[in-house]
Amino acid sequence: MSEEQQEALRNPLTGVLLRIVAVLTAALAIYHIFNFGALTGYTMLTGEYIYGLLAMMLPMVFIAIPAGRGRRVNPVPWYDWMMALASAGCCLFFISNQSVSVDEGWEYAAPEHVVWFSLALWLIALEATRRCGGWPIFVVVFLASIFPIFAGRLPDSFAGISTPIDLVAIYHTNSDESLLGIPSQAFANLVIGFLLFGIALQRTGGGKFFIDLAFALLGKVRGGPAKVSIFSSGLMGSMSGSVVTNVLTTGPLSIPAMRKVGFSRPYAAGVETCASTGGVLMPPVMGATAFVMATFLDIPYGEIALAAAIPSALYFFGLFVQIDFYSARNKLKGLPAIDLPRVKDTLKEGWHYIFVFAFLIWMLLFMKQEAIAPFYATALLLVINQLRKHSRWRWKDFKDFAESCGALFAELTGLMAGVGLIMGALAVSGMSGTIANDLLFIAGGDMFVLLLMGALTSFILGIGMPVTAAYIFLAIALAPALINGGMNPMAVHMFILYWGMLSFITPPVAIGAFAAASVAGSSPMKTSFVSMQMGSIIYFIPFFFVLEPALVLQGSGAEIAKAIACAAAGILLVAGGLQGYLPKLGDLSERGWLHWPLRLLFIFGGMLLAMPHNPLINMSELQLFGLSFALIAAGVLLTLAHRTLRPA
Could you read off the pLDDT of 299-311 as tens digits, one per residue? Predict the structure, then answer.
């Protein structure tokens, strides 16, 4: 459903409440993050701050999101008002007693009335998770959250410490490991500001500017509209942090343009799906998972964004060359120049978006102010926007902006609260400290086997739950085992994030591909298979950087340069093999029976070239390079020989 349709169905009272709560949430976040407590004389405890956000956003989950599927009824049902009031009341109770909770250690022992409040909030958080994330994530969160109650009765491999339900309830609501844990802390301290910036960028016309700029730069080259999709979707995905939102935003423009120059419906939808998926991995504004990762690793978000730059660039490079080779093989041209915007005019209209992006990057990477940077960037963007007559907001635009922020805040709050329950359950049962050793035992101590297990598990979890939830579960369960085995922490966490994203392009689920298919009017399943083939390079890139941390900037300058050069050359050859076309060698399908042997030679040669030296691989770097060179040389010589010997 489009944003306009959602707004048409929304209860007017719901819109008013969303706007009010969004303003109050932003004000509370600014008060805490900018430390205005030093001026007023009242500084909130972390628990007070997070429960303050929950007290505003959890009620909106029940007011804005209906209990069942479909539109919000008008008026809001009485039971949703009761849930909203109950959630606000529980959160206010814990706010007013936060100091007592810390002093008396309520996470381990609490008065009976506190237990009842804790049980009520636990149930409310579960229902909020169901409404925001759907039944699959609800089932996972529910089973995980009650796991400590039955942990001692399970087989030894899965057993933990059994804990009475009253102690589990107070731990969920009063400890720093559950509702107040890493997901909520990341949301409260980092995500809110970047959400404000992303929504402001879209609402002021940033999305249109980036799409126009992409058409102006790339629209007339061969396969131009598909390359436009890569460029524009990468930038839009960085703003929205959502694959489906990105597809539905840029797809209606890029997919018809691709169809116009000769791309089939499934291929056009597949290109858009892959580009939108990669956009969520593109710095500087990545999805919510990246902020949770920064909190897990206890490093500035700017370092996460910087480390993600090379893997995301390699992914988009792989997509770009595949489209170029496909277009060359099928003789697809670009759009007529007369139908495209001019670069000069586009930059004149939207230069300030680039300026604000540069300002944000400067604040993140050079000033190291990742918490306050998005607030300054948002303010700068809105000020410039109001100074420009043709894009100046009216009062209705400000109201729509606040309403969009409120709706997104409420949805993410419900998800983060539910994911926090998973962490709390693993912590109170003792499983968070032992599950890594269990996984190592199952893998027989082999790190490569453990990587394959982690990739498969990340993919499966990515099918059934949001990427953030899947990432957090594996960051607790799998990451310590890999790190203890000697792998780089940054590379390991990035590996989990990438594999969790693959469910968006991989059948049978492929949510992103299904969304693109609806725009293109193509078969959803056929589109998902095309997406998997188009985005196949992303299946290999996580293994490249987890085995060679230099690709996530964990190494010397020389190591990083060499790793990038080998990876880029390898990806070029793999893409050529997948598409059956390479520059200077031409269309490999014209080589008769040598067609597939040649493609396989270039695919395997490229993979070995990009494959870094690592103790997990029983070959030296020189041996890997020699084998890859031999395969590539054989492919080139066979291609040239067939061309020379082929009859005229």
Answer: 888 889 889 889 9
